[in-house]
């Protein structure tokens, strides 16, 4: 591992092209990776930022089957959506590639072939379910059956999503194929395995001893736990028709397992970016390789992929894998299947021009060491109290006062006081302090230090009060604003890794370009007489209660829809005799009058023509029906229910209604008009 790297290869986990990306993805992987890369570029380092879509695997084929399209059409759709979402949020990949590309197929095939030719794999045969009608072996997700633990009749071959149990296909009761619906049979099949157990001694030396002090504790702990439990051979191929074909004889109908194929996507993407020099970024010992991932990918990037690279022999190993924990949403785990998420493309539609606000909130609340929670109220508070009232307020005051008192030109400094010198000294220390935190993957602390710089500026202006000072000492006022504008000029460069749009807007206001990291902190970035832009605007705007209330309601509506979709019918009541049932006299009637019962919220007074008589019925349905809309409606009435006095009104019968899972009511009515008094049998 190079102590002073000549170059950096930075990868961000390949998002799965089976759906859009959400705030959990951005907070956990792509935002910290982008901050790191933008900082390295500002520091003048040679860095390549690599990512792309992971486009193979069973979930994609299942989605394609359900939607009646091809797997390629599925990945084309989501590759474009994900790519555009990242671009709109300023995630500055040098390349965003895809694993369905021809380059990837060649690189992944060549990687497998080298390990195969050098006997780095072991071959094993096993019994696997086969669909005789579809004439193919079935991946675990193509097999459903009854869960042996909870009785769920639609458990998958790898997991029951109702009780959460991990399963194997042979554990399912009455398994059936999702392709044909038939019961599959067990057949023998051959696959190639990566013998992870053979690399245990090396992994102990490389990770357990070698990265004890420099990897994050959550990453190191998970790796050590896996190694301590003992590793086992892992299949690198599977029976499927969507993926990179296994490039050896006797492997018809087999593809590279997606977990083996996907990380090679980093290499193939780099080759797409740099066809002639890509190997320098993957094979030269002067290159520092850093993987940004979420905690669900730690084992793949810290154990399995390094074993693949080690087995190959030509590649460098990752220097660090600064994985984050998970981000929850309003106290609940983000779930794509339950639509419990804030999707990036939807956020941009609801908050146009506010990509940086979400970048700020997600970094300030990043799940770096433990799971954290995103709430819309915190989002609003951080925007209004920190971006608007702190950072935006400092910049706005410095610029507006310069326009007001000095015609929009940087005033000259006429002698610095001790206070001025102390502020400029502190300014000079911020770039190194922020940079060291970023170098150590402490992005949340780095952002806080950045905000401390604007806090320093606000405090300085509050103490010196240039808006009052101008009345008695114009020269001193000019010095104060000169110092304040130097702080603002450094913010252009220091802000850019975190909030690139705001940094660009600030640069436009000050009429300066972002500079090298080493230049930030200087006290002469803006010379006396330098003209600011003729007009300025607020960097950030307050977010109102109604705006976030709408987002909260959107989530509540999602939760309600999920509850309705998953609602289970109430248990059946005890049996009654046929004779008891026959005693009920259910008739068809027509509502001829309806009105609300005074001083109640739920009660309606109805007059119903039952064919036998006209009678009064009091019913607790006022929350769901408008009285006038009921007039003329045919209804089902339990006509021989004993009379009952309700709010001083004698009710003679009961309407029959159905209650939905959300508590709403629906009238039970005949399918077409019938004679009043007709029996319901």
Automatic annotation (TrEMBL):
<dbReference type="InterPro" id="IPR041872">
    <property type="entry name" value="Anticodon_Met"/>
</dbReference>
<feature type="binding site">
    <location>
        <position position="160"/>
    </location>
    <ligand>
        <name>Zn(2+)</name>
    </ligand>
</feature>
<feature type="binding site">
    <location>
        <position position="147"/>
    </location>
    <ligand>
        <name>Zn(2+)</name>
    </ligand>
</feature>
<keyword id="KW-0030">Aminoacyl-tRNA synthetase</keyword>
<dbReference type="InterPro" id="IPR029038">
    <property type="entry name" value="MetRS_Zn"/>
</dbReference>
<keyword id="KW-0963">Cytoplasm</keyword>
<feature type="short sequence motif" description="'HIGH' region">
    <location>
        <begin position="15"/>
        <end position="25"/>
    </location>
</feature>
<keyword id="KW-0436">Ligase</keyword>
<dbReference type="InterPro" id="IPR004495">
    <property type="entry name" value="Met-tRNA-synth_bsu_C"/>
</dbReference>
<feature type="binding site">
    <location>
        <position position="163"/>
    </location>
    <ligand>
        <name>Zn(2+)</name>
    </ligand>
</feature>
<feature type="binding site">
    <location>
        <position position="150"/>
    </location>
    <ligand>
        <name>Zn(2+)</name>
    </ligand>
</feature>
<keyword id="KW-0862">Zinc</keyword>
<feature type="binding site">
    <location>
        <position position="336"/>
    </location>
    <ligand>
        <name>ATP</name>
    </ligand>
</feature>
<dbReference type="Pfam" id="PF19303">
    <property type="entry name" value="Anticodon_3"/>
</dbReference>
<keyword id="KW-0820">tRNA-binding</keyword>
<protein>
    <recommendedName>
        <fullName>Methionine--tRNA ligase</fullName>
        <ecNumber>6.1.1.10</ecNumber>
    </recommendedName>
</protein>
<feature type="short sequence motif" description="'KMSKS' region">
    <location>
        <begin position="333"/>
        <end position="337"/>
    </location>
</feature>
<dbReference type="InterPro" id="IPR002547">
    <property type="entry name" value="tRNA-bd_dom"/>
</dbReference>
<dbReference type="InterPro" id="IPR033911">
    <property type="entry name" value="MetRS_core"/>
</dbReference>
<dbReference type="InterPro" id="IPR023458">
    <property type="entry name" value="Met-tRNA_ligase_1"/>
</dbReference>
<comment type="function">
    <text>Is required not only for elongation of protein synthesis but also for the initiation of all mRNA translation through initiator tRNA(fMet) aminoacylation.</text>
</comment>
<comment type="similarity">
    <text>Belongs to the class-I aminoacyl-tRNA synthetase family. MetG type 1 subfamily.</text>
</comment>
<dbReference type="InterPro" id="IPR009080">
    <property type="entry name" value="tRNAsynth_Ia_anticodon-bd"/>
</dbReference>
<keyword id="KW-0067">ATP-binding</keyword>
<feature type="domain" description="TRNA-binding">
    <location>
        <begin position="580"/>
        <end position="681"/>
    </location>
</feature>
<keyword id="KW-0479">Metal-binding</keyword>
<dbReference type="InterPro" id="IPR014729">
    <property type="entry name" value="Rossmann-like_a/b/a_fold"/>
</dbReference>
<dbReference type="InterPro" id="IPR001412">
    <property type="entry name" value="aa-tRNA-synth_I_CS"/>
</dbReference>
<dbReference type="InterPro" id="IPR014758">
    <property type="entry name" value="Met-tRNA_synth"/>
</dbReference>
<comment type="subunit">
    <text>Homodimer.</text>
</comment>
<keyword id="KW-0694">RNA-binding</keyword>
<dbReference type="Pfam" id="PF01588">
    <property type="entry name" value="tRNA_bind"/>
</dbReference>
<dbReference type="Pfam" id="PF09334">
    <property type="entry name" value="tRNA-synt_1g"/>
</dbReference>
<keyword id="KW-0648">Protein biosynthesis</keyword>
<keyword id="KW-0547">Nucleotide-binding</keyword>
<dbReference type="InterPro" id="IPR012340">
    <property type="entry name" value="NA-bd_OB-fold"/>
</dbReference>
<dbReference type="InterPro" id="IPR015413">
    <property type="entry name" value="Methionyl/Leucyl_tRNA_Synth"/>
</dbReference>
<dbReference type="GO" id="GO:0016874">
    <property type="term" value="F:ligase activity"/>
</dbReference>
């Amino acid at each position: 591992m190079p102590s002073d790297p000549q170059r950096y290869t930075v990868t961000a986990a390949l998002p799965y092209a089976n759906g859009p990306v959400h705030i959990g993805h951005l907070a956990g992987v792509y935002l910290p990776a982008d901050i790191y890369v933008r900082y390295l570029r500002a520091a003048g380092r040679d860095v390549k930022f690599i990512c792309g879509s992971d486009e193979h695997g069973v979930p994609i084929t299942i989605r394609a089957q359900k939607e009646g399209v091809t797997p390629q059409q599925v990945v084309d759709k989501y590759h474009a959506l994900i790519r555009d979402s990242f671009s709109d949020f300023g995630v500055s990949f040098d390349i965003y590639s895809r694993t369905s590309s021809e380059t990837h197929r060649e690189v992944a095939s060549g990687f497998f072939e080298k390990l195969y030719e050098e006997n780095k794999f072991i071959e094993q045969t096993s019994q696997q379910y086969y669909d005789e009608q579809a004439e193919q072996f079935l991946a675990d997700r193509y097999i459903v059956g009854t869960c042996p633990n909870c009785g769920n009749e639609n458990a998958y071959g790898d997991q029951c999503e109702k009780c959460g149990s991990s399963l194997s296909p042979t554990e399912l009761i009455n398994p059936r194929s999702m392709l044909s619906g038939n019961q599959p049979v067990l057949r023998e099949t051959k696959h190639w395995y990566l013998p992870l157990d053979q690399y245990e001694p090396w992994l102990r030396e490389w990770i357990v001893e070698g990265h004890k002090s420099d990897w994050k504790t959550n990453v190191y702990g998970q790796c050590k736990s896996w190694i301590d439990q003992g590793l086992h051979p892992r299949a690198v191929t599977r029976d499927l028709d969507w993926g990179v074909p296994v490039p050896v004889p006797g492997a018809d109908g087999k593809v590279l397992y997606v977990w083996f194929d996907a990380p090679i996507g980093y290499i193939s993407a780099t080759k797409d970016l740099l066809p002639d020099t890509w190997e320098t970024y993957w094979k030269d010992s002067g290159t520092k390789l850093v993987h940004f991932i979420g905690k669900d990918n730690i084992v793949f990037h810290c154990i399995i992929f390094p074993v693949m690279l080690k087995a190959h022999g030509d590649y460098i190993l990752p220097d660090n894998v600064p994985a984050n924990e998970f981000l929850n949403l309003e106290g609940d785990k983000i779930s794509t299947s339950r639509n419990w998420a804030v999707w990036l493309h939807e956020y941009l539609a609801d908050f146009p021009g506010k990509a940086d606000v979400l970048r700020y909130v997600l970094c300030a609340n990043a799940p770096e060491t433990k799971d954290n929670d995103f709430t819309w109220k915190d989002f609003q508070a951080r925007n209004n109290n920190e971006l608007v009232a702190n950072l935006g307020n400092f910049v706005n005051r410095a610029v507006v006062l310069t326009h007001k008192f000095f015609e929009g030109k940087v005033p000259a400094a006429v002698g610095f006081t001790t206070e001025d010198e102390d502020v400029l000294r502190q300014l000079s220390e911020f770039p190194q302090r922020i940079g060291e935190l970023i170098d150590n993957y402490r992005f949340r602390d780095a952002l806080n230090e950045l905000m401390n710089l604007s806090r320093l500026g606000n405090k300085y202006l509050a103490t010196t009060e240039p808006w009052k000072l101008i009345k008695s000492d114009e020269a001193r006022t000019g010095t104060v604003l000169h110092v304040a504008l130097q702080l603002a000029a450094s913010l252009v460069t220091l802000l850019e890794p975190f909030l690139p749009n705001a940094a660009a807007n600030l640069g436009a206001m000050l009429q300066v370009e972002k500079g090298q990291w080493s230049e930030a902190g200087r006290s002469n970035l803006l010379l006396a007489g330098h003209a600011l832009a003729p007009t300025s605007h607020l960097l950030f705007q307050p977010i109102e209660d109604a705006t976030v209330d709408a987002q909260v309601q959107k989530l509540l509506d999602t939760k309600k829809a999920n509850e309705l979709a998953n609602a289970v019918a109430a248990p059946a009541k005890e049996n009654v005799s046929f004779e008891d049932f026959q005693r009920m006299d259910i008739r068809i009637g027509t509502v001829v009058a309806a009105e609300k019962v005074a001083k109640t919220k739920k009660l309606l007074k109805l007059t119903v023509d039952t064919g036998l008589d006209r009678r009064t019925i009091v019913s607790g349905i006022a929350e769901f029906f408008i009285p006038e809309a009921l007039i003329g409606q045919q209804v089902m009435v339990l006509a021989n229910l004993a009379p009952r006095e309700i709010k001083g009104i004698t009710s003679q019968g009961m309407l029959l209604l159905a209650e939905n899972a959300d508590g709403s009511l629906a009238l039970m009515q005949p399918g077409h008009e019938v004679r009043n008094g007709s029996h319901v049998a």
